[in-house]
Design brief:
The protein is an alpha/beta fold. The protein is built from 31 helices and 27 strands.
């Protein structure tokens, strides 16, 4: 317990897993917490039960550890540092590593997922973020400046979804609270002493780790805040892992100007990598739709590319060329994809080896994966596109490492080193000799047993072994008189006596020593092999990156072939033109489900810079989309975002033709929900998201607004939506899709030159409405809300009452509401009733009416027309018409 106290004092903020024999034990408050969280039995070490205690078997502790880590706990592992057989004192114990949510290997983590440890650092008006996935070695940092630096850093943090965030001790709690948005919470926040967050300590730490004198070559020249954040991450890893993570040999500074920016709201609304509702079908995500990757590294690169598409025309076009070549040649494409078979997770296998948690089978798996690289290299050599040639040149086949491991390890090595059998024959002459002694033991014992039977005349004499007494000769009680004088009595049983002899003692010493010595030699040889492999860690990581990119390109080409995707055309003008485009996620879902074919729709937008004195092109920059719920407005909006995302990933797109100019950022205001915990209503969430768009969007952005202003009073919402459309049109000029049920907004198309009305096509029949899911020019005449409610199953009485109330409200809307526009003009927000009569006549299928139905309709229209007649002395223009 003295040892436990020392270890606990050194790590007071952890749960101390204290190794005692075959168990990890926890004591005092640690035991109470662990028993509660793990639902295991709480017992006590003493009769007075003053020392609460609980424990888990050490050989099955991994599952318990992961459960605690996912709950945000930090765990210190205190191991036995001596072999209990070799010491007569209490075994010495030390804390060998500290597990934290951001540094532990989570076995439940998906192949495509990262387990990031983050450090968030601020220095004046500059904010920096460093992210490290210890399980793969991915290490990057970014820096943000200006008045929005803090919010940009938080956005990037939330998008990465780290398991643990490091913060300075001196940072107030309010700073950390800002990381909670829309119910998202970072699993754990850890405070690190302020002296670590200094340039004099953190920057040299990064330089030493990377083996350089300056960080200029890593893009960090002039970015000290980012370098400090990276140094804090390294400090934390070294202090918790208690060893040097040799696979961390590179650091990437992320230039946001080279990426299409996506905030967490957009990532969530578009369901890019996670479904909108946690725990639901992942088929609703873009990642699932585009995941044709063959390797874990390729899956992670696909996820990263979805979250950070390119904003570099040259890089995008190079990907198009590589995908085009693979798409056009089925044989060569499939040879490349076949070469990925058998390549396991190189990054995570290397990380386990670096952190000394890899067993013999892990090393063998790494070597087997490396042995597949020559075949991949040969298959890529046939490709001629510049990007394929570059990947072929960069791919190190690592034949030397694969050969070394293959020669050193046994063909099928065991999981651990405990029982030996790890090293192949012929590697060590001494090891082979010791193994020969051990393996010949059975024959030697049989020879001794036969010889002693002949010497004593006792046919039932047996030579046996157990771990307590070693080797012994066993003679039954009835034959004790024949026992030779040189037999030394060892143990008395009820029916037998056990003896030993000088020869048996000598043999036991030789055999047991040989076995233990063989295990020691195997451990030494395995350690040498581990060091040799880790010396090539940087080569393995570079090869892994090449495999990931080749897998990504081959996957894009495969999708283009099997789904009919086409190559987009990237142009310099801010245009977005898509002919017969489809929503990739919904189309794939329908294909997997075997339902009807997805109905394609076309799209044309042309952004403009409001600062241009002569805008020239007057093509629409803002599309106002009206139509009923369930008609497809939201699908049409999301489809536009998906096309841009896929195109700037370098992927082909689901459209007959696509032409576009680079988009710097995608904004979405799609749906909203209360954030009760933070005291924010649905409407407040909506306005906050809209404010972000209007304050930061540029003429190169893509803006998607769906049903803005529906969370407040009708006039308030309509007024805000009206003003937002005007602002987007006049002040920003971004390519914008604006879906709304405020039909009054469609009048803006007559006054604003770059606003165009579109509507969702609907067919009415005597039995109700049919959604055609196609987009056509013009404004919708009504919303069909009651018809949608009927499809949802509302009681008939409610629907009839709703129709009656609707008619009453329509009759009461007589007075026009004046709205100011850029050019003062009188315009009505609500359509007069007489216009509704005109619309009703236009929508009536005369051929389907019976004479009686026609007479009834005429009577209804006459009554309504009489109700809308101008009052005495009045001169209402519509009534006069």
């Amino acid at each position: 317990m003295r040892q436990w106290t020392v270890a606990k004092n050194e790590h007071p903020d952890t749960l101390l897993f204290f190794r005692m024999g075959d168990f990890y034990e926890l004591f005092y408050d640690d035991a109470i917490v662990a028993a509660r969280e793990l639902q295991i039995t709480l017992t006590a070490r003493d009769r007075e039960r003053a020392i609460p205690m609980c424990g888990v078997p050490y050989h099955s502790a991994e599952g318990y550890l992961q459960r605690l880590l996912r709950k945000g706990f930090r765990i210190a592992i205190c191991e036995q540092m001596e072999d209990p057989k070799l010491t007569k004192k209490i075994v010495r114990r030390e804390v060998t590593r500290v597990l934290t949510p951001g540094t532990a290997f989570d076995t439940s983590l998906g192949q495509e997922q990262n387990n990031f440890l983050a450090a968030l650092h601020e220095d004046g008006a500059t904010s920096a973020l460093a992210l490290l996935d210890l399980s793969t070695g991915e290490f990057r940092t970014a820096e943000f400046t200006g008045p929005t630096a803090h919010s940009q850093a938080i956005d990037e943090l939330l998008k990465a979804q780290p398991s643990e965030v490091l913060l300075p001790v001196s940072v107030p709690d309010g700073f950390a609270t800002e990381m909670d948005r829309s119910g998202e919470r970072v699993a754990a926040r850890t405070r690190v002493d302020d002296w670590v967050w200094t340039r004099d300590y953190a920057v040299p730490l990064v330089e030493r780790k990377l083996g350089v004198r300056s960080l200029e070559g890593f893009g960090l020249s002039g970015h000290p805040t980012a370098a400090i954040a990276a140094g804090v991450v390294l400090h934390y890893v070294q202090s918790t892992q208690k060893l040097d993570a040799l696979h961390l040999d590179s650091l990437r500074f992320v230039e946001r100007s080279n990426e299409l920016q996506l905030d967490p709201v957009t990532v969530r609304n578009l369901e890019l990598v996670e479904p909108l509702v946690s725990g639901t079908d992942t088929r609703s995500t873009l990642f699932h739709t585009l995941d044709a990757s063959q390797t874990p590294m390729g899956k992670r690169l696909l996820r990263a590319t979805i979250l950070r598409p390119l904003y570099d025309a040259d890089a995008i076009n190079k990907r198009y060329e590589a995908v085009a070549e693979a798409h056009s040649d089925l044989v060569r494409r499939e040879e490349i994809r076949k070469a990925f078979t058998g390549i396991l997770d190189l990054e995570r296998l290397l990380a386990r080896l670096s952190l000394d948690s890899a067993g013999p089978r892990d090393v063998a798996a790494l070597a087997a994966s490396l042995a597949r690289l020559p075949a991949l290299h040969n298959s890529m050599k046939a490709m001629t596109a510049p990007l394929w040639r570059d990947l072929t040149t960069r791919l190190d086949t690592l034949i030397d490492i694969a050969t070394l491991v293959e020669k050193t390890l046994a063909v099928e090595p065991p999981v651990t080193l405990v029982d030996g059998g790890v090293i192949a024959p012929g590697v060590s002459a001494e090891l082979d000799e010791l193994r020969s002694i051990s393996s010949s033991g059975r024959q030697s014992i049989a020879a001794i047993e036969e010889r002693e039977r002949a010497r004593t005349g006792i046919a039932s004499l047996k030579v046996r072994y157990n771990s307590v007494f070693g080797y012994y000769i066993e003679i039954s009680k009835s034959n004790l008189a024949n026992a030779p004088a040189d037999y030394e009595r060892k143990q008395t049983l009820v029916n037998a006596e056990r003896f030993t002899t000088p020869e048996l003692k000598d043999y036991e010493t030789r055999v047991l020593t040989a076995h233990d010595r063989a295990i020691e030699i195997e451990k030494l040889l395995f350690a040498q092999l581990r060091r040799s492999v880790l010396e090539a860690a940087s080569r393995i990581r570079r090869a892994s990156a090449v495999v990931a990119e080749a897998d990504l390109l081959a996957g894009f080409a495969h999708l283009a072939s099997v789904r009919g995707y086409t190559r987009p055309e990237l142009v310099d003008e801010p245009v977005l033109e898509a002919v017969a485009a489809r929503h990739p996620v919904i189309e794939n879902w329908m294909s997997e489900s075997g339902t009807t074919r997805f109905i394609p729709n076309s799209l044309y937008l042309h952004g403009h810079n409001p600062e241009d004195a002569e805008p020239g092109n007057t093509d629409p920059s803002l599309l106002l989309i009206t139509g009923p719920n369930m008609g497809g407005k939201s699908t049409y909006l999301r489809q536009a975002a998906m096309l841009i995302l896929m195109a700037q990933m370098g992927c082909y797109v689901p459209a007959a033709k696509m032409r576009y100019g680079l988009v710097d950022r995608i904004y979405t205001r799609i749906g909203a929900s209360d954030n009760v915990a933070r005291g924010r209503s649905t409407f407040m969430v909506e306005m906050t998201e809209t404010a972000t768009i209007l304050n930061t969007a540029t003429s190169k952005s893509l803006v998607l607004l769906d049903e803005m202003g529906r969370g407040t009073a009708t006039f308030d919402g309509l007024s805000l939506a009206w003003a937002t459309v005007e602002f987007l049109h006049a002040e920003i000029g971004a390519r914008t899709l604006f879906a709304t049920h405020y039909h009054e907004l469609t009048m803006l198309a007559e006054k604003l030159p770059r606003v165009l009305n579109l509507r969702v096509a609907v067919k009415e029949s005597s039995s109700g409405i049919v959604f055609l899911h196609s987009i056509e020019p013009g404004a919708a005449s009504k919303s069909y809300g009651i018809e949608v409610a009927r499809l949802a199953g509302l009681p008939k009485a409610v629907l009839e009452r709703a129709r009656h109330v609707l008619r009453q409200h329509e009759k009461q809307e007589r007075r026009s509401v004046q709205v100011e526009t850029a050019e003062p003009v009188q315009m009505t927000i609500f359509t007069p009733l007489s216009q509704r009569i005109v619309d009703r006549i236009a929508e009536t299928d005369i051929n389907s009416l019976t004479p009686l139905q026609a007479l009834n309709l005429l009577e209804e229209l006459k009554q309504e027309l009489g109700e809308t007649a101008a009052p005495a002395g009045g001169n209402h223009p519509r009534s006069a018409r």
